[in-house]
Specification:
The complex is a heterodimer of chains A (235) and B (914). By secondary structure, chain A is mainly α. About 17% of the residues of chain A have low confidence. Chain A has ten helices and one strand; from the N terminus they run αααααβααααα. In chain A, helix 4 packs across helix 5. In chain B, 29% of the residues lie in helices and 18% in strands. In chain B, helix 9 packs across helix 11. Chain B is globular, with a radius of gyration of 29 Å. Chain B is built from 30 helices and 34 strands. Chain B has 914 residues and is of the alpha/beta class. The chains are: A mainly alpha (235), B alpha/beta (914). Strand 1 of chain A pairs antiparallel with strand 1 of chain B, so a sheet runs across the interface.
């Protein structure tokens, strides 16, 4: 009789302890998830820029502004000059555009806040994903529907590997709004603009870009499986 | 609250804190203008020139977002065809060096560059109006624009003179001989591509020679395990120290420096005897005093290889020896146009400067000189007596210096200016073969107050010199100098893009005559080989102190002794026993009441009765290790040796006792073929492998530096190094071969197919990739170090500390953004430059193919190797360069009996011992 009560007490302790551990790990997980996962992170930007208006309403392609995503590992934020191509004569007196024109004429760069950030030991290459026909929205969500951009995905390793292993389920194939292979079916045109972007006046690359790039891609192409070994991203 | 309640509520607190936890905001700052050509995240390459004294090579600088991160040879440059040496690789360090001189000073007070230039201009104006003498001391250079700028300034101001002051005047000895015997001004660069037999009298052509990169390239073209014409070059070295040339030569003879002359004389005697020119022996007044079998053998060889053999004299041979060797070269018939010693291939601006220096000394003692400008010359370090003469005879207010570092000289000058790095300013250079190159700035000066030497001279002398008064900057001057080559902007930009201007074939032939008749008038220097000598030679890593501040090179093990950071005195075992010395004992070397304190390092293979110490040390840290103090511009001095009784731990990466080469054992294992190939992995497309040709490897260690820069490998410093915590991924081991010579064995991660490290990692931080690479995942590693214990090649390195955290913000610009900067507590190792492989894979896949073509991936060590000893590529492709090398008879793998199946193959070294 006595031993039964001890057993029950022990059971209670074990269950209590396990619950405590579960809550602890859940807390740690949340801490990890919020500090690294950060879904929904939507910092205030120095200029109130609406992707909904520019991309959603006017249909400006992603790659029109974020040009280097096609050729470089890094997807650049457009220069003030790039914005001023239109805004020099468009809504130039709007109070939303004034900070931009101030930055342009005063030559003070705009300090945007980075939203999508990977740890330093992860090497992500934009050009490889874009040229494999992975749509921007696979990682960034449907930005053309966001008024102010927030982080749409978790960016943790499981999330990466999910796509790499099951591209058919998770990857969104290239869409028209992204600008991937839409305008650039003419290979000469593409090589012409990419050359102007990558060929410096005085330097030279070791290897040249292919003469006739991307002719064999048929739009829309289904992205294939990505690599899964460690050194594909960690080096 | 009780303790138990607190712990019960703790998880909830975690949840509460976590929800409020945000990572810090990080800014992205785009450019305002598209910039002319910068794509973020993509490297850009610019061609420019690296010049060390009067030798220039074309380089390609890799930049990320405008900051230079790597220097490599320019593949199109005719002289160095894309290859580099350790000094060239490491010259990037001084650009970001945290201790670089940044503040101009006038009379010890910090001033802005404008105020300093104003003060300097006033002073020069004062001097010129009073008709006072101004001397500008410069180092050897190879810039035609500098030369013409100096000439223009000298022509317009008779009171201003430029004096070339190299740390060692040995070159001028060569130029004296050339002037007296051949009637030409300057030092001839031998063309080894025409030679089949090279006899070196202490000439370190593969090591510390200024042209060693060029010589190594030419030498390596004639060697190599797969080279059918292997017997194309035979290298015989006579030396007192142990140089890289000696280690790589087929026959090495150890001679005391005082015996060099007798050896040369007897050799000439024997050669003339055997070639039947007996009458010349009397004419030259030759004696056959040095008795050795080797002389007869060499004389016979010289006769066999006549007009394909060349004799080279080094820095520490005396005047008469050089005279005799020039005579020998003349009789071998290799002086002249299109010969080995081509009279066209003259080092630029290498004419004899000793008369200038002597006149300068006289003028100083007479008190004629009023102002001295030290232009990048640290005279207080290498020329103590001349510097004392200057400080005694020139008013201390009139000493001006411009230098990259706050040196001993600049501290004693009233006006001191920080000099711009060569990647920050315009310039140009000409190679000895006539290839001209523009030096273009890659980055705006990091410190606004630094100024290039050319800009400084234009700034000061613009008002007093009519011929340069219309140039505002040195760039304008260079542009006008290049008008002949590049009349329009298009050609100018082409020259900048290519990185050099092709040498145009001129019909210009130097005239020369041979005056050997005076040879019997040169007095014979009789000295005994029992004299104890101090021999000061340039260091294999830091040259003559030009790279003393460079921590990459300070931590680069010396190829021969494998020591780092400090100077030492090399002694032969016999001499060490005679003076009862052990490794690490401190000795006092005394001459003319100047004392040098050095630790002893005993090396079998250096001459007896000789203390060999490296020049270039004692600059950054105080102590009596500066060999220049004692030598005073000479190479050799008679000294006395005393034991102090103290001890000093010499830091080195390998034991002083040299072991036999393990490679031979591996070769036997291969021949017995007892090992069964247990290949577990099946590779589909790529199997990356490397072949190291030991017949080509000279041990120069350029690969070690290149690897360190490319992969952000930490510099650990002297203290950490003494705890054996070095981080270099690639090391070069030295061993004895069958002839008792030192041979080299570069060892990096072997990327085994059956890797012992992979099976023991508890957290799967080290794994095998589908293309044969042993991956190291830093973010998984927890630092158990089981892998280090299980690796038979000892190639894994552990971060005991956060070495990178101590670096300054400016230094961190040097990091390669493609490679993770590793933190404390994790293991790292060679990755086969996986970032370069991935980049090539992206390129291949972006253009629609999965296979990476051969030669697209070049590892950092392969790219740097001056001898081309390293080949990297796909083993599954039978036509790739690496497959061809690996399938040769002489290829072996290290410790094959362990069945680790490494992906690194070594090709055996062969000596020409016919």
């Amino acid at each position: 009789m006595q031993s039964e009560t001890i057993d029950r007490k022990r059971k209670k302790k074990i269950i209590g302890g396990m619950l405590w551990l579960i809550i602890l790990f859940y807390g740690l997980y949340l801490a990890y998830d919020f500090s690294f996962g950060n879904v929904g992170y939507c910092p205030e930007q120095p200029i109130v820029f609406s992707h909904l208006k520019h991309s959603g309403d006017f249909g400006i392609k992603c790659l029109y502004c974020h040009q280097s995503a096609e050729i470089s590992s890094f997807s650049q934020i457009p220069t003030a000059h790039h914005c001023m191509i239109c805004h020099i004569a468009l809504k130039e007196s709007s109070e939303l555009v004034v900070p931009l024109s101030n930055s342009y004429f005063d030559e003070v760069p705009i300090q945007w806040t980075n939203i999508y950030r990977l740890p330093d030991y992860v090497h992500f290459n934009h050009s490889r994903h874009i040229l494999a026909s992975v749509d921007c929205s696979s990682c960034h969500g449907e930005v053309e529907k966001m008024d102010s951009v927030y982080q749409a995905t978790k960016l943790n390793m499981k999330w990466c590997l999910d796509c790499h292993r099951n591209p058919k389920i998770f990857v969104v194939p290239a869409r028209e709004i992204s600008g991937i292979y839409m305008k650039y079916t003419d290979s000469n045109f593409f090589s012409a603009i990419s050359r102007s972007m990558v060929s410096p006046a005085y330097g030279d690359y070791f290897s040249e870009l292919p003469k006739q790039p991307f002719d064999w891609f048929v739009y829309p192409k289904k992205p294939g499986r990505g690599p899964e070994h460690c050194s594909a991203c960690h080096y | 609250m009780e303790r138990r309640d607190f712990i019960k509520l703790l998880p909830l607190a975690f949840v509460a804190v976590a929800t409020g936890c945000r990572r810090p905001d990080e800014k992205i700052v785009p450019r305002i203008y598209p910039g002319s050509y910068t794509t973020p995240g993509m490297p850009e390459y610019f061609n420019t020139v690296y010049s060390f004294k009067n030798v220039a090579y074309g380089i390609t600088v890799k930049t990320y977002e405008g900051r230079p991160v790597k220097i490599d040879g320019n593949p199109k440059h005719p002289l160095n065809i894309g290859r580099s040496n350790a000094q060239m690789q490491a010259s990037l360090y001084s650009l970001y060096d945290p201790v670089r001189f940044i503040e101009p000073k006038v009379n010890g007070k910090k001033k802005s560059i404008k105020e300093t230039l104003e003060a300097l201009k006033n002073q020069i104006q004062n001097e010129i109006s009073l008709n006072n003498q101004v001397r500008i001391l410069i180092d050897e250079h190879c810039s035609p624009s500098f030369a013409s700028l100096f000439r223009l300034i000298e022509n317009d101001n008779t009171n201003v003179r430029f004096i070339t002051l190299p740390p060692l005047n040995s070159d001028s000895n060569h130029s004296i001989i050339n002037k007296e015997v051949l009637g030409i001004n300057g030092v001839i660069v031998p063309n080894l591509s025409k030679a089949q037999y090279v006899l070196s009298f202490g000439a370190d052509i593969l090591g510390t020679d200024k042209n060693s990169l060029y010589h190594t390239i030419e030498y390596s073209k004639k060697r190599g395990s797969n080279n059918n014409s292997h017997n194309n070059i035979k290298l015989v070295t006579l030396e007192s120290n142990y140089s890289l040339t000696g280690a790589n030569s087929d026959t090495r003879i150890v001679v005391h420096p005082n015996d060099m002359e007798a050896f040369a004389e007897s050799l000439l005697y024997n050669y003339l005897m055997s070639s039947g020119q007996v009458e010349l022996i009397e004419q030259y007044d030759l004696l056959n005093t040095y008795d050795s079998i080797e002389i007869n053998l060499i004389a016979k060889d010289l006769l066999k290889y006549i007009d394909k053999a060349v004799v080279l004299s080094g820095d520490y041979t005396n005047y008469r020896t050089k005279y005799l060797l020039t005579a020998l070269n003349h009789h071998l018939g290799n002086i002249g146009n299109n010969k080995i010693l081509c009279t066209d291939n003259i080092l630029p601006y290498s004419n004899n400067n000793i008369p200038d220096i002597n006149t300068f000394r006289e003028e100083l003692t007479e008190g004629k000189i009023s102002s001295v400008i030290f232009a990048g010359v640290d005279l207080a370090y290498f020329g103590n007596d001349l510097f004392d003469l200057i400080t005694d005879n020139v008013p201390s207010n009139n000493l001006i210096s411009i230098s990259l570092y706050d040196s001993q000289t600049s501290r004693k000058c009233s006006i001191s200016l920080p000099m711009a790095h060569f990647l920050e300013c315009w310039g140009d250079a000409v190679c000895f073969d006539g290839t001209k190159t523009i030096q273009q700035p890659i980055i705006k000066p990091l410190n606004n107050d630094s100024i290039g030497l050319g800009d400084l001279l234009i700034n000061i002398f613009k008002e007093f010199c009519n011929s340069i008064s219309n140039y505002n900057t040195y760039y304008d001057f260079i542009r006008s100098q290049w008008m002949g080559y590049a009349p329009d902007d298009r050609k100018w930009e082409m020259a900048l893009r290519e990185g050099f201007v092709k040498k145009h074939n001129s019909s210009y032939v130097l005239e020369y005559n041979i005056y050997l008749s005076k040879i019997n008038n040169v007095p014979r220097i009789s000295s005994s080989n029992n004299d104890l000598l101090l021999l000061g030679l340039p260091s294999n890593t830091i040259a003559t102190g030009e790279f003393a501040e460079n921590r990459w090179l300070r931590e680069l093990p010396d190829p021969i002794t494998k020591t780092v950071w400090d100077n030492y005195a090399l002694l032969s075992p016999t001499t060490a026993i005679h003076y009862e010395l052990k490794n690490g004992d401190m000795i006092e070397v005394t001459s003319d009441s100047i004392i040098l304190v050095l630790p002893v390092y005993i090396l079998d293979g250096v001459a007896d009765n000789c203390i060999i110490a490296s020049l270039g040390y004692g600059k950054t840290q105080k102590g009596k290790t500066n060999v220049f103090d004692l030598l005073n511009n000479l190479n050799i001095k008679n000294v006395k040796l005393n034991k102090t009784g103290n001890n000093h731990k010499i830091l080195s990466t390998q034991n002083a006792e040299i072991q036999n080469n393990p490679i031979n054992k591996d070769f036997e294992v291969k021949l017995q073929a007892t090992i069964k190939d247990n290949q577990n992995y099946k590779y589909k497309l790529h199997h990356w492998a490397m072949a190291v040709d030991l017949d080509l490897c000279t041990g120069c260690s350029a690969c070690v530096t290149a690897c360190q820069i490319e992969n952000n490998i930490a510099i650990v410093g002297r203290k950490e190094f003494s705890n054996n915590r070095q981080m270099q991924w690639l090391r070069i081991e030295k061993y004895k071969d069958s002839n008792n010579h030192i041979t080299f064995l570069p060892i990096m991660c072997q990327h085994c197919d059956n890797a012992p490290c992979e099976s023991v990692c508890p957290v799967f931080a080290t794994t095998h990739s589908p293309d044969g690479i042993n991956e190291m995942t830093y973010n998984r590693c927890v630092g158990t170090r089981y892998c280090m214990a299980n690796c038979p090649y000892e190639v894994r390195r552990f971060n005991y500390k956060d070495y990178h955290k101590n670096e300054t913000e400016q230094y961190k610009y040097i990091y390669n953004p493609e490679v993770t900067v590793r933190m404390r507590g994790i293991v790292e190792k060679c990755t086969f430059c996986i970032h370069k492989i991935n980049e090539a894979r992206y390129k291949a896949k972006n253009s629609g193919s999965n296979a990476i073509s051969d030669g697209l991936v070049k590892t950092a060590c392969q790219q740097a190797c001056p001898a081309g000893a390293i080949t990297f590529g796909n083993l599954l492709d039978n036509n790739s360069a690496v497959s061809i090398k690996i399938h040769s008879n002489t290829s072996i793998r290290l410790l094959e009996e362990l069945n680790t199946n490494p992906s690194v193959y070594y090709l055996l070294r062969r000596d020409n011992c016919d």
